[in-house]
Amino acid sequence: MSTQTSVLFDAPGPKARARNVLYTAIALVVFVVGLATLYLGFNQTLRDREASLFDPATWAVNPSGQWAASKWEPFLRPATWTDYVIPGLQNTLTAALTASVLALVFGLVFGIGRLSERWWVRAASGAVVEFFRGIPLLMLIFFTMALPIVAYQLFDIPPGTFQVTALAAVVTGLTLYNGSVLAEVFRAGILAVPKGQSEAAQAIGMTRTQRMWVILIPQAVTAMMPAIVAQLVVLLKDSALGYIIAFPELLRSFTLLATRESNVIPAAIICAVIYIIINLALSRVAIWLERRNARRGKPSAKPTDALDAPLRLGTATGAAGASVAVEPTVQEPLPDTLSEDERTGPGDDSDDGAPRDGRD
Amino acid sequence: MEAFLSNIDRVVDGFSWTVRLTLLSALFSFVLGVLLTAMRVSPVPLLRGLSTAYVEGIRNTPLTLVLLFCGLGLNSALGLSMADSVAWDVFWWAVIGLSAYTACFVSESLRAGINTIPLGQVEAARSLGLTFTQNLRLIVIPQALRTVVGPLGSVLIALTKNTTVASVAGLGVQEASREMKLMFDQGIAPVLPTFVGFAIGFLILVLPMGYFFGWLAKRVAVVR
């Protein structure tokens, strides 16, 4: 990053240094004004009376404002953590983990399905993947919640026969959506394995299934590991949608807490910090995997080749410097990976519409 | 299906909010994203730090939380009213939240695009005596934008789908998914056709976008 950016400008001379100081000052002023606005807004002193900005009382911490110590004090009580935060975190992680496992299975099945030799398997898998990738996750969750009504309306199963829990709805939605995205990742990974690998396997008499499971998938998964982890970060973040259907996950516990203690802003800040820490940690894992792949010498399937860029957003911090291939189509043709006869193989229809997932 | 079709005006109304949210948020997030990228690569360390902190922070926060913060936090705490009617007021707060969130992804895509520009381009520009701003405006951003048309299309599609989160409590923009949920709950049309109808609506919005950006990406690709 630092080596990359410093190319954009020369070592500053006296004029440039003066200008940089000026920009720093302007940025500082804007930043401080922004912070002050937020501080005063949440301090709730300005709207109560005819307060002037220059009155020290305006700037003092308002005991009924959001910055009062009493609003933050709940986070020092163990009960807050044991009654709200930890159960919420547990539910978030349960949903995210269950959905991760199911989404990986779903992605593997449909990713391989899209590469099948039978056209109807290809078509069906393609339709499923495109459908679930194209509609919002929230709609899937709503629909899953409404399944008992569907059962009643279509099959006359009386309401109350079965219930869809909020957890089940969240997990189903997350699985279908992220599974579809992962299917594309797996497919891209399998296609990016050099053709020689598959041909060599064929030459020593492996069946198609053997080739897929013994030769192609292990290499594809290794190469795609960073993208897979990045998608799992998305999945974890999206589990916060469970809030909307009252699934008691982390965000929901924090809003319950905020309602009880009327400390919306402290709760929001601490909740955000928890999410940021978890997601940053997971992103580090992705970066580490990427570097490890790079260190291993030349991986047989280049991770940067076949990837959709948004999937990589979680990992493309640029620190590795390796994450530059944004858009596969504009890079120079890579002779050993995606040659044109690969594209005429199974699943040929998807090249143009490829880079368009990544909910986030 | 008839019951659903007889309520088609509600569907269209829901999608009209979805489209408005998408277009305005796309505009603002693009502007903010370019600004964040420029800050991120600028010679001023403070600007770089602010941009990095913003992008890393918001990107790792769930959108639901960002929108809740706009709806419950900023909206009530600052006491700012963005419009006269409640529907438009929450709409603008949703646009702010979505733009703030999406800008991070625009910025990340653009930065990845900047990384693909060959060093020679930038060095040539510098040796011609272009300043940092000129360099960015005339050399770097145009090429980076052409490289990231595809990823930006993905960001736009993600944004379109993310507008559904604006139905979150505290905002409650009457967009398509909320309209769908209301139609489920009020039982005015069978659930399955309603779901399929709304899903088709989203596919109509999203699929052409994907093909358009795929086509555009190929068209404007920088041949190197």
* Spatial gap, N to C terminus of chain A: 23 Å
Could you tell me the number of beta strands of chain B?
Answer: 0
- What is the annotated CATH architecture of one domain in chain B? Orthogonal Bundle
The CATH topology of one domain in chain B turns out to be MetI-like fold
What characterizes the major β-sheet of chain A?
none
Structure description:
The complex is a heterodimer of chains A (360) and B (224). Residues 1-5 and 305-360 of chain A have low confidence and may be disordered. In chain A, helix 5 (78-113) packs across helix 9, helix 7 crosses helix 9 (166-192) and helix 10 (195-203) packs antiparallel against helix 11. Chain A is 64% helix and 0% strand. Chain A is built from 15 helices and no strands. The relative contact order of chain A is 0.11. Chain A has helices at 2-6, 14-43, 56-59, 69-72, 78-113, 119-134, 137-145, 147-155, 166-192, 195-203, 208-238, 250-261, 264-295, 309-312, 340-343. Chain A folds into two domains: 12-67; 72-350, MetI-like fold (Orthogonal Bundle). Chain A is mainly α and 360 residues long. Chain B has 224 residues and is mainly α. The longest helix of chain B has 33 residues, at 8-40. Chain B is flat and about 70 Å long. The model of chain B has no long low-confidence stretch (mean pLDDT 88). Chain B contains ten helices and no strands. Chain B has a domain at 19-174: MetI-like fold, CATH 1.10.3720.10. Chains A and B meet through helix 2, helix 6, helix 7, helix 8 and helix 11 of A and helix 3, helix 4, helix 5, helix 6 and helix 7 of B.
What's the topology here?
The complex is a heterodimer of chains A (360) and B (224).
Chain A: H1 2-6, H2 14-43, H3 56-59, H4 69-72, H5 78-113, H6 119-134, H7 137-145, H8 147-155, H9 166-192, H10 195-203, H11 208-238, H12 250-261, H13 264-295, H14 309-312, H15 340-343
Helix pairs in contact in A: 5-9, 5-11, 5-12, 6-9, 7-9, 9-11, 10-11, 11-13, 12-13
Chain B: H1 2-6, H2 8-40, H3 45-59, H4 63-78, H5 86-116, H6 119-127, H7 132-147, H8 149-162, H9 176-186, H10 191-220
